[in-house]
Every structure is written in structure tokens, then in C-alpha cells.
Design a protein that fits this description.
Number of helices: 2
Number of strands: 10
Helix content: 25-40%
Radius of gyration: 19 Å
Structural class: alpha+beta
Distance between the termini: 26 Å
Order of helices and strands: EEEEEEEEHEEH
Strand order of the largest sheet: 2-1-8-7-6
Mean pLDDT: 79
Low-confidence stretches: 117-126, 136-141
Oligomer: single chain
Length: 141
């Protein structure tokens, strides 16, 4: 995977590590001393991450990964590799939302039932949001 620098336009080798709820963008370290072989360059939480098709007219197979604070333009060597990465990233997002939507706290479900969507029950929505935030803070690093 290669990152295109937003400041200089340089092309930099990167490694993506996709976990169930986190995407890590790492760079290789060139060191003769033992220790970490990769440096963490960026971290994206899957539930706040967006993946967009690239619009680079010079470089083929580009796509963007971004959140509220940063955006990274990446590209792969082949179109097939790009499509595979996009599929993995979209599946990670979908899987996380599926897991979150089925998360239960006691007997309460955090997601409203399909039959309840659109009905205005503000108290219920506020309580569900509070439970969601409490669980979200528990899992934050």
C-alpha cells in the first residue's frame, strides 16, 4: 500500500492493519536496533471512518480513508488489490454496526426495534444514547 502525502505529494510505503474496530496505518522502520519494525502513523476508529473512491487523475487505484480529524489518500498496485481492500474496509464497518446494533445491556437493546423507528419517544432515545455513550467510553483506548 502506498500513501500520497497531502503536503508534498510524495509517495510513501504504508501498511494497513485492519482490526475489528480499528484501522492502523503504519510505516516501516529502517533501524538496525531491535525493536518495533513499524511506526504508527494514523489510527482510524472503524465506527467513525469513511472510505471514499479516489479522484486522483495522475495515480490509478486511489481511495481515501478519513474521519473527523484526518484524511489519507492511498493507492494499491492493482485494481483488484484496491477492490479487495475496499471490500474488507466496508465489511469491517458493516460488521461493527451489526455488532453494535445487537448489543444488549441487561434486557434493554441499544438499537430501537424496526417497528419503533420514526416514532417520537424522546425519553427512550435519550436513555439509549446515554447507554451507547457509556459503552463507547468503556471501549475507548
Amino acid at each position: 500500500m502506498v500513501k500520497i502525502s497531502a503536503r508534498t505529494g510524495d509517495h510513501q510505503d504504508r501498511y494497513l492493519l485492519l482490526l475489528s474496530d480499528l484501522l492502523l496505518l503504519c510505516s516501516p522502520r529502517k533501524s538496525m536496533i531491535s525493536g518495533p519494525q513499524f511506526g504508527l502513523r494514523a489510527r482510524f476508529e472503524v465506527d467513525n471512518m469513511q472510505v471514499l473512491e479516489g479522484d486522483n487523475l495522475v495515480t490509478a487505484n486511489t481511495f481515501y480513508v478519513r474521519d473527523d480529524h484526518k484524511s489519507v489518500e492511498l493507492y494499491t498496485a492493482t485494481r483488484q488489490e484496491k477492490e479487495e481492500w475496499l471490500e474488507y474496509l466496508f465489511l469491517a464497518i458493516k460488521s461493527l454496526y451489526t455488532r453494535k446494533s445487537s448489543l444488549r445491556v441487561g434486557r434493554e437493546i441499544l438499537r430501537p426495534l424496526d417497528s419503533e423507528i420514526g416514532k417520537s419517544n424522546l425519553t427512550c432515545k435519550v436513555e439509549m444514547y446515554k447507554m451507547y455513550r457509556m459503552c463507547h467510553q468503556f471501549y475507548e483506548y
